[in-house]
Specification:
disordered C terminus; seven-stranded mixed beta sheet; Metallo-beta-lactamase, Chain A; 9 helices; about 290 residues; alpha/beta
């Protein structure tokens, strides 16, 4: 199995996006003046396994519009076709695309894809609901032309600490797991690599590993308690299985993938807001 970190440009977000205030200001501050982050990568992921090339998410395009809390920095040369070609990969060889969730910087690259596209049924219902539809119009963030993924159900039972999952590969080494929070139907994809490590392609389950450490709900999540509960589940999984944790916008994700750096935790439940015990990162040579 080979996993590639495909970067399709960068995004700057407000500090209030990464470090939101509790209560009503959590989302209000997104629309107020504030400091901006350094550029953060917009990653999607290519998985080569058993002669099949899969993508997890498709990244952003140069057509992306800025929103009050995010400034896109994407050129045409950074879009999916060229980004994949840098790894010697071709979109013509992609058999399947799995979407973690339906935000533009994860789905806009679908304009380049002609193969099968899968999305969690819960996420597709959320996308079609009134409030997300209104917000897409207000923020001028339309879905990509022809957006019509095949829905899938997490009907495969538990996988590690995750109570709901679905195998994506015939051998069960590529699995979608339920990680709601950032959006209600958000999923992550876990790959069991050739050394038995779990490589978690986490989408926006958190923005960074630091956020996972802190168990801090983001400014986007409709229900912060759901988001924190998902982070607790991820930590519990990391305690059970050596896991390389790779959020799509973490500047360190590509390096963690290359170094096979895993995250360990005592994973003991703690009240939201409590100071977590330090997590340790462990690196071992990739197989």
């Amino acid at each position: 199995m080979k996993i590639h970190a495909i970067q399709t440009g960068s995004v700057r977000v407000k500090r209030s996006f990464l470090f939101p205030q509790p209560g009503p200001r959590r989302q209000l501050d997104l629309f107020m003046p504030g400091a901006w982050s350094e550029p953060l990568p917009i990653h999607c992921w290519a998985i080569e396994h058993d002669g099949v090339l899969r993508l997890v998410d498709t990244g952003e395009t140069a057509e992306a519009r800025n929103v009050p809390f995010a400034r896109m920095e994407v050129s045409r040369e950074q879009e999916l076709p060229s980004a994949m070609a840098a790894f010697g990969l071709s979109l013509d060889d992609v058999s399947e695309v799995v979407l973690t969730h339906a935000h533009g910087d994860h789905i806009d690259g679908l304009v380049h894809v002609r193969g099968r596209v899968l999305s969690h049924e819960v996420e597709l219902r959320y996308v079609a609901a009134r409030f997300p539809s209104v917000m897409r119009r207000v923020l001028r963030q339309p879905l990509p032309p022809g957006f019509a993924p095949e829905p899938f159900v997490l009907d495969g039972g538990s996988f590690g600490a995750f109570p709901r999952s679905r195998a994506l590969s015939d051998d069960g080494r590529i699995v979608a797991v339920d990680t709601p929070g950032h959006t209600p139907g958000h999923v992550s994809v876990i790959c069991v690599d050739d050394s038995g490590r779990h490589v978690m392609l986490a989408g926006d389950a958190t923005d960074t590993l630091e956020q996972l450490h802190a168990r801090r709900a983001d400014a986007i999540a409709p229900d912060p308690k759901v988001h924190v509960a998902t982070m607790d589940t991820i930590l519990a999984h990391c305690a059970q299985h050596p896991t390389v944790y790779l959020p799509s916008h973490d500047p360190e994700s590509a390096a963690r993938l290359g170094g096979a750096v895993t995250v360990c935790s005592d994973a003991r439940p703690r009240p939201y807001g409590a100071v977590p015990s330090p997590l340790r990162a462990h690196s071992s040579a990739a197989a």
